[in-house]
Amino acid sequence: MTWYLAIRSDSRYGESIPTSALTEYLDSIPELCRTDLSGYTAEGGLLGWVHLVIASCGPTGSYATHPSRLPQDINLVQLICSSSLGSNYEAQEALARRIAVRLDWEMLDDETDEILHARVQPTG
Fold first, then answer.
1. How confident is residue 8, by pLDDT bands cut at 50, 70 and 90?
2. What is the pLDDT of residue 93?
3. How far apart are CA 2 and CA 24, in angstroms?
4. For 31-63, how does the pLDDT look when each residue is reduced to its tens digit (9 = 90+)?
5. At what angle do helices 19-27 and 89-103 cross, to 10 degrees?
6. pTM for the full model?
7. Do residues 10 and 117 lie in contact, with contact meaning Cβ atoms separated by under 8 Å?
8. Bridge partners for 84 per DSSP
9. Residue 8, strand partner residues
10. Are 1 and 82 in contact (CB under 8 A)?
11. Closest-CA residue to 77 (of 121, 110, 111, 31)
């Protein structure tokens, strides 16, 4: 089983940032290892199984990724996490929160739509 944490500017995916600004930050996180142009995976055992995807999506949140293509701007960071016994929910959520704080975007549980971290500067 998996659970999903989404990091986005708002529910309309109304803001994008340059992909390079985010990838430089993600590349600096020691727990992550880049797997292709748009994906990362957890390094070591603290996080459990985690796959992170960066994407550009439409207003409904639909997106597609390709390992050899990367959009110029992104508006979604999606963490796909294992929910099996022994998964470290707290560490997975903490990683997502660090990214959300860095971007000043909201973080939500995709299954419940519960906002787990709100923006400091709301969109207007």
1. very high
2. 92
3. 27
4. 899 999 899 998 667 788 899 999 999 888 888
5. 140
6. 0.89
7. no
8. none
9. 76, 106
10. yes
11. 110
Confirm if 75 and 114 have CB atoms less than 8 A apart: no
Tokens of 67: 């390992």
Q: Which helix (H) or strand (E) holds 23?
A: helix 19-27
Q: How many CB atoms lie within 10 A of CB 34?
A: 14
Q: How far apart are CA 121 and CA 111, in angstroms?
A: 25
The amino acid occupying position 24 is E
Q: How far apart are CA 19 and CA 100, in angstroms?
A: 15
Q: What does the pLDDT average to over 101-118? A: 94
Is pLDDT of 80 > 90? Answer: yes
How many Å apart are CA 42 and CA 33, to the nearest integer?
6
Secondary structure of 31-46 in HEC code, one letter for each residue: CEEEEECCEEEECCCC
Q: Work out the percent of the chain whose per-residue pLDDT is above 90.
A: 56
Closest C-alpha among 102, 119, 95 to residue 14: 119
Rounded to whole angstroms, how far apart are CA atoms 46 and 108? 21
- Other beta carbons within 10 angstroms of residue 105's beta carbon come to 24
